[in-house]
Design brief:
Number of strands: 11
Strand content: 25-35%
CATH superfamily of the largest domain: Periplasmic binding protein-like II
Oligomer: single chain
CATH architecture of the largest domain: 3-Layer(aba) Sandwich
Distance between the termini: 36 Å
CATH topology of the largest domain: D-Maltodextrin-Binding Protein, domain 2
CATH class of the largest domain: Alpha Beta
Number of helices: 9
Structural class: alpha/beta
Strand order of the largest sheet: 2-3-1-4-11-5
């Protein structure tokens, strides 16, 4: 059971965790090794600091855990931070990991006959309805955003829509599904995030952790 003054750090499942592992090692903040075990069903993990513990959650949930005070600190992608836009979440440090981009993509067959500059009323499948609507609104394009939590590319194969907004790294997944990247919305990387209220009430301890990350962040 967590002690009253425990600082809880929320980290995402998946590939970002393996990149984060190197940073945590550099700053000598070492969680129980089972944190990195994909088969482990534990939800919370002690560390080599008796006042710090980790929780492992879905990447899309990190901001929510931090915003509502279940964790005081977290690691989240800038895409997720912008999508949820919680006023209680402060993101002081870019960690230099998890780099990719959030982009608009469309079926290759569609682009043979249609200029994206002429889009006016479209349907888009995405995990990012807020970002998507704001991006296209700035272009004067009306969007019906279909919210999906995964397998976004499948929406075009099953004719739910002909366009998506999703994360792109190498572009291989798009190509394999007959999609072409049309336009980048924003560059993405993981950031350290902090609950604003916790930062005020436990400034000394949280500031020490932030300082460690600032000194050792990945270039």
């Amino acid at each position: 059971m967590s002690k009253k003054n425990t600082i809880r750090i929320a980290v995402p499942r998946g590939r970002i965790l393996s990149e984060l592992r190197l940073i945590l090692k550099e700053i000598n903040l070492l969680p129980d090794e089972s944190l990195y075990d994909d088969n482990c069903r534990k939800l919370s993990f002690e560390s080599n600091n008796s006042n710090i513990e980790f929780i492992k959650v879905r990447a899309f949930d990190v901001c929510t855990f931090v915003a509502f005070g279940a964790a005081q600190i977290g690691v989240a992608g800038s895409d997720i931070i912008e999508e949820f836009d919680y006023s209680e979440v402060y993101s002081p440090i870019s960690l230099g990991i998890g780099r990719c981009r959030l982009s608009v993509a469309a079926l290759k067959s569609l682009l043979k006959n249609e200029d994206p500059q002429m889009w006016s009323n479209i349907r888009v499948a995405t995990k990012y309805p807020k970002i998507t609507k704001e991006f296209f609104a700035d272009k004067g394009v009306q969007v019906e955003a279909i919210k999906l939590n995964g397998s976004v590319e499948l929406a075009t194969k099953l004719l739910m829509c002909r366009r998506i907004v999703d994360l792109v790294s190498s572009g291989k997944t798009l190509k394999e599904n007959g999609l072409v990247e049309v336009e980048k919305i924003l560059d993405v990387e993981s950031k350290l995030i902090v609950n604003r209220s916790a930062y005020k009430t436990d400034y000394s301890n949280i500031a020490k952790i932030i300082s460690k990350f600032k000194k050792k962040k990945k270039d």
